[in-house]
Write a structure and sequence with these properties.
This protein has 310 residues and is α/β, with parallel strands linked by helices. It has two domains: 17-107, no CATH class; 119-308, 2-Layer Sandwich (Nucleotidyltransferase, domain 5), CATH 3.30.420. The chain contains 13 helices and eight strands. It has helices at 2-11, 17-31, 40-48, 60-73, 77-90, 98-107, 138-144, 183-191, 208-217, 241-253, 255-262, 269-281, 290-308, and strands spanning 119-133, 153-161, 167-174, 194-201, 220-223, 234-235, 238-239, 284-285. A hairpin with a 2-residue loop joins strand 6 (234-235) and strand 7. The two termini are 39 Å apart.
Length: 310
């Protein structure tokens, strides 16, 4: 019966397919957005102002664009050289060799939140997902310290605005790091992009420190507490009146009542973000070093936020 009600509730919502089509068409245009060519000389001149040694030949906007191309098309550096060489036949830009691209992209930083605008009263959902490591290399050295010899995977922690589905907070860790370790960081990153009125999170973030942080920041908690969560104010020497209040409400009225009250179902929007990320950019990482993997994740998130904002 619950499934039938869910289908009926969504049956009245009509999608504007013309708007969807236009958005997808704009995405195709975005992949070949080369406006940086128009200000190439000016940007390079500004970068070289006061610089000692060999001057830059390629502006940062070009390097960041090539970084996005590499992530989206999963293109190795030597193929990137061929790509830009052929592109230079049709577009007035200087072709860079693969060594230059490798060094500049390694030193480049594509902020995942560069395109975000400040918002008020955001409802933020927190969760984590894994990205597979495709290459051996330095990653094996890291996990080898614990006696394991498998490739492993990276854990990506995000905070998502459930209304716009923008990623407003991002952390990358190894697979054995628990979700709640980055709760404070994700919440504080979200506050850099506006005000937050509610935080949605599953039981992996259920801790007194998380509730106390939201209490200090005057943010409504929508964190799923454990079924046997204590309703006492203090436990093991740590006090959390807000968590005790939520646990009492759930004990008295039940989980379903609490879920509807806080609109916990909106948390599933973050799962939609993970699905879109892995569908568009794949769930594997091609970088070999730890810093390279972090940079690749940030680039994927930056490109995702750009696509969402088209």
């Amino acid at each position: 019966m619950a499934k039938k009600r869910a289908r009926k509730a969504g049956a009245g919502k009509k999608r504007d397919w013309r708007e969807v089509d236009e958005r997808l068409i704009k995405r195709g245009e975005f992949y070949l957005d080369i406006e940086f060519v128009e200000s190439w000389d000016e940007d390079a001149k500004r970068m070289n102002r006061g610089k000692r040694g060999r001057p830059f030949r390629y502006p940062e906007a070009f390097i960041q664009w090539m970084s996005l191309v590499r992530v989206f098309f999963s293109m190795p550096y030597r193929q990137m050289q061929g790509f830009v060489q052929k592109l230079s036949v049709f577009v007035p830009l200087r072709a860079a060799d693969y060594t230059t691209l490798f060094k500049r992209i390694a030193a480049s930083n594509v902020p995942f939140d560069a395109c975000l605008l400040d918002r008020e009263d955001m409802v933020v959902a927190l969760d984590s997902t894994g990205f597979r490591v495709t290459n051996r290399g330095e990653w094996i050295n890291h996990v080898g310290e614990t006696g394991r010899s498998r490739k492993g995977w990276l854990k990506v922690h995000v905070a998502v605005d459930v209304e716009t589905r923008e990623v407003v907070g991002l952390e990358v860790s190894r697979e054995d790091v628990r979700d709640h370790a980055y709760f404070e960081s994700l919440v504080m990153q979200s506050l850099e992009h506006g005000t937050v009125k509610k935080v949605l999170a599953d039981g992996g973030y259920d801790s007194r420190s998380a509730f106390n942080l939201l209490d200090r920041l005057e943010i409504e908690p929508a964190i799923k507490t454990r079924e046997n969560a204590t309703t006492t104010l203090t436990c093991q020497g740590v006090s959390s009146p807000l968590r005790a209040k939520v646990a009492k409400y759930r004990e008295r009225y039940g989980y379903n009542s609490w879920r509807e009250k806080v609109e916990y179902g909106k948390r599933w929007n973050v799962e939609g973000v993970f699905s879109a990320l892995k569908r568009i950019f794949k769930e594997t990482l091609s970088a070999r070093t730890w810093q390279g993997m972090i940079r690749e994740v940030h680039t994927k998130m930056a490109m995702y936020n750009l696509l969402v904002n088209l």
